[in-house]
Amino acid sequence: MSDTDRSDMSAFKELVRSSKHITALAGAGLSAASGIPTFRGAGGLWRQYDALSLATPEAFRQNPARSWAFYEYRRQKALAAQPNEAHLALARFADPIARKAVVPNCESFSFITQNVDGLSSRALATVGGLDKPERAPVLEMHGAICEPYCASCGRVSPAYTSEPICPALAGIVDEVDKNGPEVDIPRDQLPTCSLCKKGMLRPGVVWFGETPRYLDEIDAILKKTDLLLVIGTSSTVYPAAGFAARVQRHGGKIAVFNLDRSDGDEDADFLFLGPADETVPKALSGQ
Q1: Lowest CB count within 10 Å: 49, 105, 118, 206, which one?
Q2: What Å distances lie between residue 134 and 20, 102, 129, 192, CA to CA?
């Protein structure tokens, strides 16, 4: 199938209308229009910084100040950002009543994100309905940057305000923008647990070498998915990079939404290139 055929929006919408179990898998490209940098694209974080020195348990143990500077910088950036039109389109699609108007035969919609910025959850709140238990939740398989937890006792300490996570990290956005995350902060000035009083807090994200969250639930979702929407991900980090192949093995269809070509998109049934905040709302509308 040519790229022209695979970008046929009318044909894609026919597929959506006939699908019963739809799943969205989101990556950093979903949040790009909100000003959140991606990882491997042009200007991506892992092109600017060494991932192994920032995003592993070993890096945190060796230099927690550097890791905290990087993740507090990202937390502040996430809190300052707003959900874009792609986040909002997915949030509306997660509402069973709104979704039924577009795909009346759809029995389930699942939303898996590799993003830690919390923008998808905030989009749900923006369109209303977080108090509705039937609304599809967002499975944040790589954690949540605004939910640091104690490295000793495991207690989560939500941090959803723009107040610095600790006084020593005040002004970190300007500091990292100018000089990067190399900071000289003593360990006893880094954030600590308010419950056990002894453990250091760590960013609430899944680092390289750690097991992503919700894998059993995701496995059950993928087994029944007949249409997988892959949105804004380069499909290079496992296990998420293997989700499309798993869906295809049992006959499910794949639609990729990316700014540029990415690994594995030649195997997709549909391919829509362009900013997610433009392609995703168009694809999920009923018109």
Answers
A1: 105
A2: 17, 18, 9, 36
DSSP for 224-247 reads H-SEEEEES--S-STTGGGHHHHH
Of residues 145, 151, 148, the one with CA closest to residue 196: 151
User: Do 185 and 155 belong together in one domain?
Assistant: yes
**pLDDT score of 46:** 46
User: Does the residue 207 lie in any domain?
Assistant: no
Looking only at the bridges linking them, the beta strands covering 149-150 and 201-202 are antiparallel
Same domain, 19 and 103: yes
Question: Cβ(201)–Cβ(192) under 8 Å?
Answer: yes
pTM confidence score = 0.91
- 3 and 99 in a common domain: yes
Helix/strand/coil percentages in the chain, nearest 5: 45, 15, 45
Active site residue 250: no
What value does the mean pLDDT take over residues 8-31?
A: 95
* Cβ atoms of 244 and 228 closer than 8 Å: yes
Range of lowest pLDDT (13-22, 96-105, 204-213): 96-105
Q: Which of 21, 87, 142, 250 is catalytic?
A: 142
